[in-house]
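hey so u asked for the seq, here:
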Amino acid sequence: MELGIRDRVAMVAASSKGLGFGIARELAREGVRVSIGSRTESEVFEVADLLAEETGTEVLANVLDAADPDSITQWLDNTMAAFGNVDMLVVNAGGPPAGKFDDFADSDWQAAFELTLMSAVRMIRAVLPSMRENGRGSILTITSCSVKEPIDFLLLSNVMRSGVTSLAKSLSRQLAPENIRVNNLMPGRIDTDRVESLDSLHADAKGVPVEEVRAANELGIPLGRYGTIEEFGRFGAFLLSDAASYITGQTIAVDGGSVSTVW
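ran it, structure tokens below
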């Protein structure tokens, strides 16, 4: 399928690995000029070089702290200086720490708010002027299947990512007349470092091998396995592209069928 996005510009947050990397890589393969951001300087520059060499497209590396508004502003400024505009944005950030209600103080809630919800607000606010000038845009937020079915030990993520999902839906209606689409992707158990860490945490709490936890999780997935970063990335690139030009305001699971709710 021709996605129709060659030579456009995408900003992809938290993209030195995991879900963000999967989307950034697929966009680069489609000829999109990609501005990637990550907290770890050595990783993000290494990944930028890797993607540029692999795909032959321009990839700009940026050190990005999603919880820091000045860092987001600098990311946008670097992107505009290098590429001149922004056509696509992937809102993404590392997840808040795991735990239950009694584990968290006000400072933990505030940190999760800044990292997860306010990073989305600030990233979207940053790119809208360029998208409006272009007369088009596509925004994709990355949350979690926990916005449909809360996960017991991910309370902070459940709450804050639900806010991001509501933000995406609200903005999709507000921005549609300006030809700016906003969608939300809910990853299920995709084989990332984050999921591996959560599995290890769960295994430690139960006193069992992590392989046992993973096997039990796979039993609850109709397709019987964890998803890959490549599978997630391909669908993310599709939603950002002109091939999905009539899709906005949607929250879609990439989860192997594990979410059991209808809506």
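Residues 99 and 153 are 5 Å apart (CA to CA). The first strand starts at residue 9 and ends at 12.
lmk if thats what u needed
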